[in-house]
Description:
Chain A folds into three domains: 9-122, Butyryl-Coa Dehydrogenase, subunit A, domain 1 (Orthogonal Bundle); 124-232, Butyryl-CoA Dehydrogenase, subunit A, domain 2 (Beta Barrel); 238-385, Up-down Bundle (Butyryl-CoA Dehydrogenase, subunit A, domain 3), CATH 1.20.140. Chain A has twelve helices and ten strands. Chain A has helices at 9-26, 30-36, 41-49, 68-79, 83-103, 106-118, 238-274, 286-312, 321-346, 348-351, 357-366, 374-385; strands spanning 123-126, 142-146, 149-160, 172-178, 187-193, 199-204, 216-227, 231-232, 276-277, 280-281. In chain A, the strands form three sheets. Chain A has a four-stranded mixed sheet, covered by helices on one side. Chain A has a four-stranded antiparallel sheet with strand order 2-3-7-6, with helices on one face. Chain A starts with 8 loop residues before the first helix and ends in a 7-residue tail after the last helix. Chain B has a single domain (2-243), classed as Rossmann fold, CATH 3.40.50. Chain B is built from six helices and eleven strands. In chain B, the strands form two sheets. In chain B, strands 9-8-7-10-6-1-4-5-11 form a nine-stranded mixed sheet, sandwiched between helices. In chain B, strands 2-3 form a two-stranded antiparallel sheet. In chain B, helix 2 (68-77) packs across helix 5 (187-193) and helix 3 (93-107) crosses helix 4 (126-134). The interface between A and B is medium-sized, with 19 and 16 residues.
Amino acid sequence: MSDLFNPTEEHQVLREMVRSFVEKEVAPQAEEFDKTEQFNRPLFNKLGELGLLGVTAQPEFGGSGMDAVAAVIVHEELSAADPGFCLAYLAHSMLFVNNLAVNGTDEQRARFLPGTCSGELVGGMCMSEPDAGTDVLGMGTVAVEDGDEYVLTGRKMWITNGAVSDTEMGDIFLVYAKTGSRDTREISLFLVEKGREGFSLGQKLHGKLGMRASTTAELVLEEVRVPRENLVGTPGKAVKSMMRNLAIERVTLAAMSLGIARRSVEIMNDYARERTSFGRPINVYGQIQRHIAESYAEFMAGRSYVYHVAGQLELDAFGHRVDSDGVKLYCSTMAKNVADRAIQVLGGYGYVSEYNVERLWRDAKLLEIGGGTIEAHQKNMTRDLAQLDKIR
Amino acid sequence: MKILTTVKRVTDPNMKIKINADATGVVTDGVEYQMNSFDEYGVEEAIVLKENHGGEVVVVSVGPSAATKELRTAMAMGADRAILVETDEKLDSDAVARVLAEVIRKEEPDIVVMGKQAVDSDRNQAGQLLAAYLDWPQATFAFSLEVADGWATVGREVDGGTSTKRVKLPAVVTADLRLNEPRYASLPGIMKAKRKPLDTMTPDDLGVDVAPKVKVLKYEAPEERAAGEIVEDLDALIGKLRDEARVL
């Protein structure tokens, strides 16, 4: 019998390993790091020891060489306990490690993957800017060629892992910048290390609604010089590699929504069979049954969609956009609604931190915004679907 | 040295157990299976022995074909190869011990380190029976294990405290909870385990008749315990213990 969610024995063993690690080491720390808005670096390093940071990277560069389904499993399991921490994991392992593993050269992989797969270095990716989000091609950061170097200038916003503490920036970033005139699609991708002159932490953002166990920062590039060896891929042609990496980003963000939804269903289901009102467990009442049953059905629909798409996703290929946008469009709102119903089922207990659903609800909201707003997914999908006459 | 360890595929001990309609077992629909947790300590100890003394770790399971998952997990932790003695029958401890004894006669390990019991049936017999069938010394409930010069020194958890036992190898050692901290199967380990050898055989191949000697008549849930009670003070507690519980 094939299992969509664990297509091979390796996937099953992986899921069990991560789940057991999450129960023992991730779940107990989640509330504290949410409260203090801090990134748990020691825990992050443990992910490195387990080989999770380089889940999809090539083994010869310190990765584990697994597929998109494996990445989805890890994100679902981590997010079921701590979506904020999982977001830091995603920014590092998908947006930096997988991005470089797919789009970099062997020389670049050898320079940066062993350190990022082990957890010695914390990585991230810089695309959005204070004035350019969904309209990514409108970015203002430029890279000007100067002899054997490029000179980067601009500001990057909403950078997960942009900081590792209140004052210290992350270690290594993949930065998108324009190498043609401002109104072209000529975008290039650069590796920019912490410590390069002119590269600084603008601000670590505070007061986030959710995902508080991961950092979000603004990074500033003031005439930052990087050698030509730090250019990833063909100059001016980074839009393709950007789209390719956005596909796995969106599928794993959708997997995070699955973790949130699954835990929310478990919590409301447990509560509703223990809690009594008018002398009976509340799960005998139709209003509660509707919350639980609809949540489970929507979760399973989303889960089936995500694993189906992940099973077909080749990490180095291009052209999954309808469904990689589709899974995130569906799952982000689904998880937010399911967490909301969990709060409703728990009543007052759902509204306070003890039962975790209020945190899951706050974290769920980010997934309608980060990695593409739901409006961006609607735009992309409709544009792609307009090319189709029939759906196969 | 050659170290042999065992894993049993058991139902998730954290799930609520329901007895089936005809009381011949527990309901297994939708139940998750995993490696017996005591076996995790056995596998970990086997790997530690190999790390300290060199050699090979062979992991054995007696159970259904799906138990390859538990064997792969043990190999992902670090065991070198696996043997599945495949059977869909529910074996009693005596049959398991006789099957393991035949595997061990073929493999000739220097030591067997296995979980003290399985968390599904909690019978705590297979290790002891195995030592008897092999006519090997045994040290059960190990919380520490040192191997040197053909002898094993085993710290044991016993009623009322601990004891130390020295056994000449080859011997059977059964693992208790405090023996070590089992490692997680790392991702590189999981990928490597895919290529490690896994041999499959049947009890018939080993010439073992697994017909049960122990017959289960009926499964019954224990009586539900009444909820506890919080009393005001010590006098009230003494009163309750004397008058209601009648233990004073």
